[in-house]
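dude i think i finally got it to work??
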Amino acid sequence: MQDHRQIKPKSLVFSVFILIIGIVMGITLVSEFHFLPAGRAVNEPEKTKPPAIAETEQTFVSISKAVTPAVVNISTTRLIKGGEEGQGFPFDDPFFRRFFGEEPRRQGPRERKAQSLGSGVIVDANGLIITNNHVVEKADEIKVLLSDKREFKGKLVGTDPKSDLALVRIDAKNLPTVSWGDSGKLQVGEYILAIGNPFGLNQTVTMGIVSAIGRANVGITDYEDFIQTDAAINPGNSGGAMVNTHGELVGINTAIFTQSGGYMGIGFAVPSNMAKSVMESLVKSGKVIRGWLGISIQEITPGLAKEFGLKEAKGALVGDVLSGSPAEKAGFKRGDVIIAFMGQPIESSTQLRNLVARTAVGAKGKVKVIRDNKEKELEVAIEEQPKDIALGGSQGQDEAEPSSVRLSGVEVRNVTPEMAKQLDLGRGAKGVVITRIDPGSAAEEAGLQRGDLIMEVNRKPINNTDDYERVLSKIDKNEAILLLVSRQGRTLFLTVTP
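look at this
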């Protein structure tokens, strides 16, 4: 007999219900506690780079392709006579010698040929190349190697040692170029690329950011307004291109800071606005024509800001006004603090110096100054900077008996004709000359030096030691002292804080 069993409908529904609950719980446990075999994933999407990174990389690739053909290799040769210069580092790059130091000089032949390497940037399709002055200075022969392996003899168009820039021309047409960018729009943190030929490795591209702008007082050139970067710059990069993310030329790579003899993450480039101005002047006139105001200026320190009643240590302090200069004609006075030049706010003396130098000769404009705690506007007409501006002679070494001391740690004496001649003070110089300063004194900390001529104390004129002692005797011992001194043909203000 066959056993025909029937499943009741209620039992069937219950079983299905239990099965569904089990499936749901299983899926929940797996998803909650990640109970999946290692190396497997459920519906795992294909791994891709974030769009922003991919776009940035593609940008750098495009810029490199567009710009590198316009960056050239510059090699120079010059004849070295015996005793003039010893053997240098490999490749003998002038950038290397200048900033990395030199090996102990070795005895060489009486005459030899020294070779050096650098870079340059084609800025005109008809063969005009901008580079650093130290790459081509004193060169007897200049060779330019293009990215397509063609080699040309370079002809020096002009140089400007004050900005460390030079122009070279080759006999070629329809060359690739780099378009000029506005370095004034650069901001700290922007990406940049440095392109050049480090150690003779042609067409090398490195990437970094703008670490700082407006770097001055580095001690490399007379006119400094450097762009600082962490992009790798090495020997042979001198004169190469610094470009922004639009592929525009924003700087000419010039130098690095190093204590080890190699790249340490700090490089400097001449900003494109300065480089373009120098280039245009060299092409037009064969020399660089700079604007001139005719004043001696210095930085505003917190101490000076306090003495001159300034809210911030910003601006440029006028230490002296040259006779017959545009500044004298415009009514500038010693002690004026320049806070704006032709509509441009002035943060530092270096900024003002660079602005005046780039101003066209004959240009007229307003200069805003603070004088006796009040703002005043002066109108000035810029003239051409004289070829030679005397900076004075050596410091004095006179050991005559000093006057009694009122400024702690400082001894002074009256100016004699012999002393005035020795210190190049000129006829009729008035004041007292510092003959001794105690090491570690407040005066030394303030920057006073032996041989300085003190002309004013707290804005009061000093003609002799009697004036000096009388004025100082009325100053509280805990009060800061503002001095106007003459040093090597220029005047400057200094504050001595007790």
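The chain has three domains: 51-288, 291-384, 410-496.
im so relieved honestly
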